[in-house]
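[Q] Does anyone have a clean C-alpha cell version of this?
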Amino acid sequence: MVSLTSIYRKQFASANLRISMSELAEATEVSPSQLRYWERKGYIHSEQFQENSSHKYRLTTLFQVMGIKYFLDEGFTLPIAVAKEEEKRNQMKDFQRFIVDRIFDLEDTREGTRIDLGPLTDNPQMSVEALVKEEDHVELRLYDTK
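[A] Here you go.
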C-alpha cells in the first residue's frame, strides 16, 4: 500500500492545479489588464487548451505574480521586480526539491508532529528528524537508524 506521505510528495512535486485569470487577479490584487501585459512581455505564461477558450494559470504562476507585485510595491521597476522574483522562485524550486526528496514520513506524537528527514549522507546509520511543537517551535534531532 502506498503511504499518504508518498501521495502528498507526488502531488507537491506535480502541482497540476490551474486557475483562471479572474481568480489570479483576485488572489493577487493585480488587474487582469496588468496580467495580460505581463504575459505579452513574457514575464508570466498561461495555458490555453482550445482556441478561443479562457487562459488558465498554474498555481506556480500565482506565487510568481505575488512575488512580482511584492517587488513592485517595494519600489522596483517591472524588469527588476521580475528578476528578483525569478531569483526567489529558483530558491523555492530548491526548497520544493528538498521537500520531495527528504520528507520520508510524517507522524503525530504526544510532543508534536515528527518529520523524518532520512539518513545523513556521510553517516547513513544516523537520521535526522524534525519535531514541530506548539507555538511554531521546531527541534532538529539525530537518531540511530540501527
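[Q] Thanks! Anything notable?
[A] The mean pLDDT is 88.
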